[in-house]
Amino acid sequence: QVQLQESGPGLVKPSETLSLTCTVSGGSISSYYWSWIRQPPGKGLEWIGYIYYSGSANYNPSLKSRVTMSVDTSKNQFSLKLSSVTAADTAVYFCARQRYSGSYYFDYWGQGTLVTVSS
Amino acid sequence: QSVLTQPPSVSAAPGQKVTISCSGSSSNIGNNYVSWYQHLPGTAPKLLIYDNNKRPSGIPDRFSGSKSGTSATLGITGLQTGDEADYYCGTWDSSLTTVVFGGGTKLTVL
Prior knowledge:
The complex is a heterodimer of chains A (about 120) and B (about 110). Chain A has no helices and 11 strands. Chain A has strands at about 5, 10, 20-25, 35-40, 45-50, 55-60, 65-70, 75-80, 90-100, 105-110, 115. In chain A, strands 2, 4, 5, 6, 9, 10 and 11 form a 7-stranded mixed beta sheet that branches. In chain A, a hairpin with a 4-residue loop joins β7 and β8. With about 110 residues, chain B is mainly β. Chain B contains no helices and 9 strands. In chain B, strands 1, 3, 4, 7, 8 and 9 form a 6-stranded mixed beta sheet that branches. A 3-stranded antiparallel beta sheet of chain B has the order 2-6-5, with no helix packed on it. Chain B is globular, with a radius of gyration of 13 Å. At the A-B interface, β9 and β10 of A face β7 and β8 of B.
């Protein structure tokens, strides 16, 4: 059974960079797409983007200028960096395995980690 | 404001059936497959339906999905108290070039 676990600081100051890592266990990170999705308090889900195990990535156009994703196959991990954060970036951040079959969907998710942007 | 529109809440009695709607447009639901997720806050969301109506292994056939035009529907029969959760639809939007989700529907089993 594939399991994902997010890790990283729960508090980030405005204008700084949010950094999270997702560790994949129970399966290989290779040959799959891996995504980050967030949920601001009281709001719906927002897809941030995905990274392929080879390192190619695709980001949500609304966040593209601030997002960088990377993958470390030796550690079975992938990461998210979101720069110049504001209070609007406060959210629960989920990592997930992304699949494609007619459209994108997410078959395994982490439980999420709350990141608060505040001074 | 989410791109896909879901009712904020639905409710039904144990053992009954409930449907949750997801409305979109030709750039998303109208031309792409829909997936559905169950989420209990504090836990990992669970994939219930993909490709409009396919169930992953381990998802009981009480859960079903359908699509017509620019709308999709999740059906749950034989409701159990354990089904109380938030439910989200999702798909690709060809105009926005991003995955989009509905705002979520809170299911209450009375």
